[in-house]
Amino acid sequence: MKRVALFLLSLPTLLAAQNYDTIQIKAQPLRGGVSMLTGSGGNIGLSVGPDGAFVIDDQFEQLSAKILAAIAAITPLPVKFVVNTHWHGDHVGGNENMGKAGALLVAHDNVRKRMSVDQFMAAFNRKVPASPAAALPVVTFSDSVTFHINGDDLVAFHVPPAHTDGDVIVHFVKADVIHMGDTFMTISYPLIDLSSGGTVDGFITAADRALSVCGPQTMVIPGHGTVTDCLGLRTWRNMIFTVRDRVRAEMKKGTTLDQMKAAGLTKDFDAAWGKGFIQPPVFVETVYRSLGGK
Q1: Whole-model pTM?
Q2: Which end of the chain is less enclosed by CB atoms within 10 A, N or C?
Q3: Candidates 3.40.50.720, 3.60.15.10, 3.40.1000.20, 3.90.1170.50; correct CATH number of 16-239?
Q4: Where are the domains of the chain?
Q5: Spatial distance between the Cα atoms of 285 and 294, rounded to a whole number of angstroms
Q6: What is the SS3 string spanning 113-129?
Q7: What span, in angstroms and rounded, lies between the C-alpha atoms of 133 and 96?
């Protein structure tokens, strides 16, 4: 995994020092009281209405004041819930501040488990210290939980390990919006965090689960990148499926990892996803490792 680590050390939102003073939180209204907020880190989902604000992910602690100000510009009501899609710092970094502001923190069981103790992310060769108690999810669940808020039914459901072992997708049923967390990105190949239990097969299953509730007008929020639709999600799913099967076929032939990297197994997809922070050789290697390659 050392070669993978070298490719990923440039990942800015996770590893490099940032000047948070220059970052602006921007809100993109979608529909049904749902918006997407962007700044630095994972895309934030927001539902507003008469019951208050419901938030999905909260980026970095240094941005909490700006995030809360952006929400306050949309609704005067407080943040009642924050749902974390997984445990990575660019999605849970603001938890402690959000909790102190009165929000109830919610996540999958495995998110709290991982945040409660030191973690080691092999892909980045990086130790992540345990989060303070005040940042830990207060409510956790194993399968799914539904929030009846702001005139909508918001279903947060766990999917098999994909990006991590605690991945959650949130479906705004009436607004017809899906927040995928990092099980979907429109700007890069997927990051399969193997040391957090992630698997390539899980990415395919996660997309299939979301597509099962997708419709012609559904808007899909990725963990990183621009809002898209079900066609965009299906295209992503099919890309992962294809690359996985190509790698698996080469493994059966006895092709070495270095040969796979040089073979251009992703070349027909590189224009769409190969310019992001997960480069094609890294994607091929993590698929290979996920399928049991040594």
Answers
A1: 0.94
A2: C
A3: 3.60.15.10
A4: 16-239
A5: 10
A6: HHHHCCEEEHHHCEEEC
A7: 8
